[in-house]
Every structure is written in C-alpha cells, then in structure tokens.
C-alpha cells in the first residue's frame, strides 16, 4: 500500500461565514462542557451520598422502638445502606478529582486523548456512583419496611 500522500493544493481562502463561526463556537463549547457535566454530577453525588447517611440513621432512630438498638431489631443488615452510600461518595470523589496525566499542549492528538479519557472516567464514575446510591436507597427502603 502506498503511504505517500499527494500534496494538498489550496486554490482559494475565504473568511468563515457568521453561521460557520457560530457552529464552530457551539462545537467547542459542547466539547468543553462534556468534561464539566460529568465533574458537576460527581460533585453533586458526593454531597447527596454523604447527606443520605444521617438521613437514613435518623429514619432508623425514628422507626425503632424506644430503648432498642438497630442490631437487636434489624441485625447487621441495617449497616449495608451506609456502606453503599459511602461507596457512592468515594466513587464520586474519584470522578470529581482532576486526572493525573501530563499532556503536551503541542500535540492536539494527545489533548484529545486526555479529554476523551477524562470524559470516560467521569462518565463511568457517575454511573457506578449512581448504581451504589440507588442500591443504598432500595436497601434503605427494605430495611425500614422490615422494622
């Protein structure tokens, strides 16, 4: 296979139309926002997951008979939602923190790869955190309904 490419000949150069400029700016903004959306979601999940723990413990205290402990009434299973909420918060922190890779700003391909990696990492951290949070809520409802 021939790996040599033919030279590119530029015949005329015209300025970008206002429509083309607007589309280009919108594309740049979408590209940059794709990283920030995942980061903001993970930031919100950290607070939500950590807030769910005292709310759950308060509900346990509210529904338990006076003078009894959660372990005697529910067993050790009462602690599972707390662990799931903590896991959700921990994974969300992983999605919120910046990446640790060094990139060379002179290489556009390296910048694209780093942005794609950051976007994918934040997406999967958000999904996993949401799954842990949903499982914690479901287990919380199950535990509270078994009292």
UniProtKB/TrEMBL annotation:
Decide whether keyword Membrane is in the record.
yes
- Membrane spanning segments where? 44-64, 70-93, 123-144
Highest taxon listed in the record's lineage = Bacteria
Instruction: Supply the source organism for this entry.
Output: Acidithiobacillus ferrivorans
Give UniProt keywords alphabetically: Membrane, Transmembrane, Transmembrane helix
Know the name of this protein?
Answer: Uncharacterized protein
